[in-house]
Design a protein that fits this description.
Layout: E1 6-15, E2 18-19, H1 21-30, E3 36-37, E4 48-50, H2 70-79, H3 84-95, E5 100-105, H4 111-117, H5 142-150, E6 157-160, H6 166-179, E7 185-192, H7 196-204, E8 225-226, E9 228-236, E10 326-336, H8 349-362, E11 371-373, H9 380-394, E12 399-401, H10 404-407, H11 414-428, E13 430-431, E14 447-448, E15 453-454, E16 459-466, E17 470-479
Parallel strand pairs: 4-8, 5-6, 5-7, 11-12, 11-16, 12-14
Antiparallel strand pairs: 1-2, 1-9, 1-10, 3-4, 7-9, 10-17, 13-15, 16-17
Helix pairs in contact: 2-5, 6-11, 8-9
Length: about 475
């Protein structure tokens, strides 16, 4: 069943590239990585990490001081970027605090605080310090509770912890809560901070690289772990969006003006129509002029060519009433193949199912997706399995890349971090290269971008696949 799109009315981002949307956008344009040799305290590992500077000096104070730990500090910094608090305050006025949900993804929450506390037992009794407040630090709900209280929201709130797909699944969870009428809008996010549990844990699994990670590269040898916080305000799209089908929730008759439906057989059912399908852009793979009237690409000098009109990323909060131009969640797909605790199914069966479900919910055919953000961790097994899945669903012509070379693998924050990066790329018609990838592994067949470029974009998929086969694919689209 096609979903009702949800607009990303506001969003913020903090990671190793810097604080705020502009820091990440500039790094994407400049092919500048945020990775550096591991300098995390008391962690002498030969690897590279994506670390956010300054958290050690930015304590949580006031009436929320009991939440103070690295993970919640990172959340606080994220909430303070890009006018996000202001956007949420305006939404709270519109909907009411009790009608706004909070859904946050994390994998380890504030475990770093617990690591520190266990080094400080009473030498006589072994008792842990009274300053150890598990409920407000390591508890998985702690970061969600902090965000909820920080933003003064009172609607449904919960934490999603499904490893690396956690903050992708928050989008799907928010959609279901809004669709069920349990809330009218939602703050979704992800926060995962560096800690020895993950750094030493992945090192013990022999999954970390001693070099900057190289997704899809023939010489790839593991991941780099990063930390990040990301948030988005999701609101129903009330105007300004023309779905592929009219007549309610994806049902009714297809809109025939310039666009052929991607699927036959009802609302998202049936088989893809391969003959006569017109992608959103004519003239080759993303070239030519847009089919949909009313679309104005933000680049001058021909169809997607030339220089960007805006040298800096402007405020993302266009159409805060749910209308206007911007980016929307138009589809999602989830699966769990449960093949192995830490290894994906070698043929990518769960990943295939997640991507197919995302396409169905978005009512799109594979060739309507202009760009695919890979989970792309740079581990040998994961990249191989994801490549098989991507080729099975999208073929070998859809442009693909991984952004892990910029930020590192931010674990439970990867989903929202990369959803926001993909949103920036959609807004700016920008195809990012797979940073640090030099020679694509000849065993892998997906169309990996070795150079960044500009071309018109309408839809993009972002993959997040976690331990235990927890898979989530999101499809984001431009509102016109």
């Amino acid at each position: 069943m096609p979903i009702h799109p949800l607009q990303l009315s506001a969003y913020s981002l903090v990671n190793a590239l810097g604080r705020g949307i502009n820091a990440s956008w500039s790094a994407l344009q400049e092919s500048r990585s945020g990775l550096r040799p591991c300098d995390f305290p008391d962690t002498p590992l030969t690897t590279w990490i994506g670390r956010v500077d300054g958290l050690e000096e930015e304590a949580i104070t006031g009436n929320l001081a009991h939440f103070d730990c690295r993970n919640n500090r990172l959340a606080q910094v994220g909430l303070q970027q890009d006018d996000f608090q202001e956007a949420v305050a305006q939404a709270r006025t519109r909907y009411g605090a009790a009608r706004m949900g909070v859904f946050i993804g994390t994998s380890t929450s504030g475990v770093q605080h617990t690591e520190q506390i266990y080094r400080q037992p009473d030498p006589l009794t072994g008792k842990l310090p009274d300053s150890f407040l598990y409920r407000y630090t390591q508890n998985l709900f702690a970061v969600t509770d902090f965000v909820r209280q920080y933003l003064t929201l009172e609607g449904p709130s919960l934490t999603i912890s499904t490893a690396c797909s956690s903050s992708a699944k928050v989008f799907a969870t928010a959609y279901r809560y809004i669709q069920a009428g349990l809330c009218e809008a939602a703050v979704v996010g992800g926060i995962d901070s560096l800690c020895q549990t993950t750094l030493y844990g992945f090192n013990a699994l022999e999954l970390v690289s001693a070099h900057p990670c190289r997704p899809w590269d023939s010489q790839r040898d593991g991941i780099n772990i990063g930390e990040a916080a990301g948030f988005a305000l999701l609101e129903p799209v009330h105007s300004g969006y023309s779905p592929p089908y009219q007549g309610g929730a994806g049902g009714g008759k297809p809109v025939h003006s310039g666009h052929s439906p991607p699927y036959q057989g009802g609302a998202g059912g049936g088989k893809p129509v391969h003959s006569g399908h017109s992608p959103p852009y004519q003239g080759g793979a993303g070239g030519g002029k847009p089919v949909h009237s009313g679309y104005s690409p933000p680049y001058q000098g021909g169809a997607g060519g030339g220089k960007p009109v805006h040298s800096e990323y402007s405020s993302p909060f266009q159409g805060r009433d749910g209308g206007g131009k911007g980016i929307a969640l138009v589809g999602y797909g989830e699966s769990n193949d449960a093949y192995h605790l830490s290894t994906p199914h070698p043929d990518g069966k769960g990943a295939i199912l997640a991507m197919q479900r995302a396409l169905t919910s978005a009512h799109l055919a594979p060739d309507q997706v202009n760009y695919l953000n890979l989970h792309g961790t740079a581990s040998r097994a994961n990249d191989l399995a994801e490549d098989k899945a991507v080729v099975a669903v999208f073929g070998t012509q859809t442009p693909c890349s991984s952004t892990k070379g910029w930020t590192g693998h931010t674990l439970g924050t990867a989903g929202i971090t990369e959803a926001i990066l993909v949103s920036l790329c959609l807004l700016h018609n920008f195809l990012p290269r797979s940073l640090n990838t030099n020679i694509v592994d000849p065993q892998l067949r997906a169309q990996i971008l070795l150079d960044s470029s500009e071309q018109p974009l309408q839809y993009a998929t972002s993959n997040s696949f976690g331990f235990g086969g927890n898979n989530c694919s999101l499809i984001l689209g431009r509102l016109t």
